Amino acid sequence: MPARGSMATEASPLLGASNGDGNGTEAAQQPPRRYNLRTALGVSGLVITLCLMAAIVVSTYPAQKNANSLTPGSDPGSVPFEAVDHPQKPSTLWGSITRPYPTGAWWLNLVVGDGDQQAVAHPYAFKTTSKGLAVSYSAYRRVMSDKSVVDIFGEDWTFGASAAVLDHYMVRYDLLTAHMYFVCAEAGSFKALLAKGSPYATVEYTRATPELKPLAPIVSVNGEAEDAMDSYEKLVSGTRFEVLLGNGQKWLIYASAPIAFNVNKSGLTAVEAYRGVLRAAFVPHGCESEMSALLDAYANGVPVAGTVTVDYGQEGEAASQPGEPA
């Protein structure tokens, strides 16, 4: 039939040679059939080889994974990396605080390494030094460019004591606050009460004689100008002190209990050991009266701890927003 002849003529060479009329001879058809057999055997052998290789890989992989597991003897699901110790060990700056240690906390620079890098709490930045707590209103030295805004740290005030500081370390922390304890040579101590976002730098003294040193010389205290000689001292006492510095900064110093200071251009030194809280607050230019009144109103409220909570509301209800009833 024409259709069958046409199909035979157009057949693949693997099906045998044709004599032109659709009837291939026996001799012409035999070699292709032997070629098909060899091809089939080759393909089968290749498939078997691949299956064996896959079986070997699957059977040996768990053993390799166990050999390199994170913890010796752990199950095969462990991360296949070698366990190593961090080269920077927790120092004595952590005090009695135990693991787990936080990472990325805003105050972490006070306990990492030598603890001499700044911790930025806004609006102030802090450093711990051999003399005490250094306080910086870094925005006062802000440098701006098209690509960056840099607030330069400066020790605008250092809260210390007349006796030498022997040691310091962290005593407590939470998400919003951190307390750094300073031990003095004459049995006294003081503690920096750092609070994120607080407009006051706060230090609590216990039987230590406070000594407050500014970066720039003191120009006046409570409106009374200082003498040009550094050796000149005068006595001021009270619970609130308005201090003007030679670099143009204005600060308010608050005391939780009455205190007397000997004042000269280089700082304020208490006349005796003190038990109470001292606070310093920067007064921005251009709004001195308003800001001073606001700082005065809240100077007695000292934050010592903080928590952060999120209220998602009841199931099916919208979450409450700040300032709205839950």
UniProtKB/TrEMBL annotation:
Pfam families referenced in this protein's UniProt entry, alphabetically: Glyco_hydro_81
Coiled coil location: none
Annotated region described as Disordered, given as residue ranges: 1-31
Molecular-function annotations in GO: endo-1,3(4)-beta-glucanase activity
Domain Glycosyl hydrolase family 81 N-terminal per the UniProt entry, residue ranges: 86-310
Sorted UniProt keywords: Membrane, Transmembrane, Transmembrane helix
TM spans (from-to): 40-61
Designated name of the protein: Glycosyl hydrolase family 81 N-terminal domain-containing protein
